[in-house]
Specification:
Length: 315
């Protein structure tokens, strides 16, 4: 067994990953790689819970503000970028820390993906326009029909479900077949995984407070700026929880109070999907924290676990 090449702090939205990672990184000499499929987008700060400039000043961060909201970003792209960041961080004698809630980004590193086949761009663009107009229920029905082994709107949400449909229709093979039958592009990377898994009631309370804070911090104005810049509800970055509900409010489909409560429901639903995914997909041998300890105690637990994982790898 080789020593882990990175430390990952994962968990559902609002579970406390950012605060813990900053403290661990300061003690460990780490640099943070964002593992969040929404924080890659420029101009989307409040609604994604993006780490603040003040927090970034404590530790170097990688993987933020890479793309405009109308661009797509796949798990395969993340894996390629993350491998380079991890190598560079290790080359500086520091510890790579992958932090975020997008579990299939982590899986793409630890269980490398296949080389994606070429797809006709014109047909792909037309298909995406159609799929972006579907409800979650209808999109899930397409996934279940075309690729029964996948879980529809499971972890990864619309983006993952849309990709499942695209692969099935444009390659003639479902995404599950490509994963099972194609050779991986890269060798697997080993990591030490820390899962933050608070009790559901505590997590929901944190989510409710966070969403209220987003509204107070100016989420409506952020969405207005994005719409004014020419981005729309169908763009990949704008389909996430918070943005689609505020777009509905701005178009007169709901009151701000109704939109806010819908954002809370969306985040709670997403957190349930994330927790389910982590329980079934993460490898054993990591560390699970329920948030009942103080931040100092959790930091010590992570540092101890990381040191032991390094020792096991060397032995």
């Amino acid at each position: 067994m080789s020593p882990p090449q990175f430390l990952a702090i994962v968990g559902p939205t609002a579970s406390g990953k950012t605060g813990l990672s900053i403290e661990v990184g300061r003690r460990l000499g780490g640099e943070i790689v964002s593992m969040d499929s929404r924080q890659i987008y420029r101009g989307m700060d409040i609604g994604t819970g993006k780490v603040s400039l003040r927090e970034r000043a404590f530790l170097p961060h990688h993987g933020l503000d890479l793309l405009d909201p109308d661009e797509r970003y796949s798990a395969g792209q993340f894996a390629r970028h993350a491998r380079r960041w991890i190598q560079d961080i290790r080359g500086r004698g520091r510890v790579p820390m992958l932090v975020g809630g997008t579990g299939f980004f982590l899986k793409a590193l630890m269980d490398p993906m296949f080389r994606e086949p070429e797809m006709d761009k014109e047909r792909l663009d037309r298909l995406r326009v159609f799929l972006n107009q579907l409800s979650e229920e209808r999109l899930t029905a397409f996934v279940v029909t075309l690729d029964p082994q996948r879980q529809g709107m499971a972890e990864g949400g619309r983006h993952r479900a849309t990709r499942s449909v695209e692969m099935a229709l444009l390659t003639g093979r479902p995404l599950s077949w490509w994963h099972a039958e194609s050779d991986p592009v890269e060798e697997p990377m080993e990591g030490f995984i820390v899962l933050l898994d608070p009790p559901r009631d505590d997590l929901y309370e944190k989510i409710n407070r966070r969403v209220g804070g987003m509204i107070e911090e100016g989420l409506v104005a952020e969405v207005e700026r994005l719409l004014t810049a020419g981005y729309g509800a169908e763009d990949p970055g704008m389909t996430g929880a918070g943005y689609r509900e505020i777009i509905g409010f701005l178009r007169g489909h709901s009151t701000l109070e109704e939109a806010t409560e819908e954002i809370r429901r969306s985040h709670r639903k997403y957190a349930r999907r994330q927790s389910t995914w982590y329980r079934h997909q993460l490898p054993g041998g990591g560390l699970v924290l329920d948030g009942s300890e103080s931040i100092d105690e959790m930091v010590e637990s992570v540092l101890t676990g990381w040191a032991m994982a390094q020792e096991r790898g060397v032995a």
